[in-house]
Amino acid sequence: MSRQLHTAPDTALILSGGGARAAYQVGVLLAIARLLPQHAPNPFPIICGTSAGAINAAGLAMGAGEFRRSVFSLARMWQNLQPEQIYRGSMSCLMATGAHWLAALLVGGLGRKNPRSFLDNAPLRDFLAGIVDFPKIQANLDCGVLKAVSISALGYSSGQSVAFFQGIAELEGWQRASRIGVRTELNLNHLMASSAIPLVFPAERIHREYFGDGSVRQIAPLSPAIHLGARRILVIGVAPQSEESPARQHTSGYPTLAQVSGQLMNSIFLDSLETDLERITRINRTISHIPAPVRGEVGLNLRPIEVLTISPSQPLEKLTLPFKREFSLGMRFFLGGLGAFRRQGSVLASYLLFCGPYARKLIALGYHDALEKEQQLRHFLAAEQATSAVE
């Protein structure tokens, strides 16, 4: 049977990392589903996900034949989520972990098994195993509603950002400075690796190397989509986009551990995406002044990339404090001691608050923010459909 993409093959969706904040992405996807016909296939043949965004990407990829249904499934998953489905956060588990870390420090790391992480995410593996049907990804590739799916992770030995991708036969891997693209058949290990926040969750072994959260050292988050053939990209971020730098605040107290950790989390999950978006804007502006024939004559292998970004209209950490009781007693004790329930420390809590009520708040915000850009989205989707018709 011949393969023919039913949607524009150069349209990509990028779902960034962000822990529990990734629920925001589902709200945006729900708004897109509203703008499309009821049984429309996935409008994004290229899907790239990182960290928790990789889980959303896998859900879309396995349900690519009917976009609205797959988005509704993701929404139900997030709306019914409980922290116990992601990690073990009971008082006894955290005390055992704390004792393990303390013992390792006291004996100088001479124990047989040194600590691997602060939290045990074994429940997440069981949870994902029950909801992600990986063979459906290949089936959707074979029938033409999907071109490629990419999941990024960091190799702890090599220090490389690796984009593991599954796609049509014509696609090839790539290698750039500190980042590579590797063709593979995606499985549960890739999702576990991509979402393994450093120190918080344990690394995942894939073949000969251990991998962690894909947002770490991902200096070019848009790169996998471009290498997979994207000319048009929708980016769903989890940090507010602002043209102005935030005003410096006068503070007298020393920053809490939660505040410092939150800024480290922001550096991992947010900064590289913002930088890459600025870079591609500059490149597009430069290319626009160079005629295509001239670019061909001098061997300038660059093409303009249309990018639409949808991001939160308000800081997501401000939404966490009403839901702190959703954490287990052990996590409230642990995070409270770090200062995570204070105004300046709530960033850390926003990444770890995997619970239905908080997710519903983020989904509602994502839906609202997407509809605020309804005309831009309609133009983006209409252009995709026009390209599909030409194909």
From TrEMBL:
Gene Ontology terms, MF aspect: hydrolase activity
Pfam family, one: Patatin
Active site: S51, D213
Keywords in alphabetical order: Hydrolase, Lipid degradation, Lipid metabolism, Membrane, Transmembrane, Transmembrane helix
Keyword Ribonucleoprotein: no
PNPLA domain ranges (all copies): 13-226
Entry's Gene Ontology BP terms: lipid catabolic process
Gene3D superfamilies according to UniProt: Cytosolic phospholipase A2 catalytic domain
Residue intervals passing through the bilayer: 12-32, 44-65, 86-111
InterPro entries cross-referenced by the UniProt entry: Acyl_Trfase/lysoPLipase, NTE, PNPLA_dom
Short motif (GXSXG): ranges: 49-53
Domain of life, source organism: Bacteria
Protein name: Patatin-like phospholipase family protein
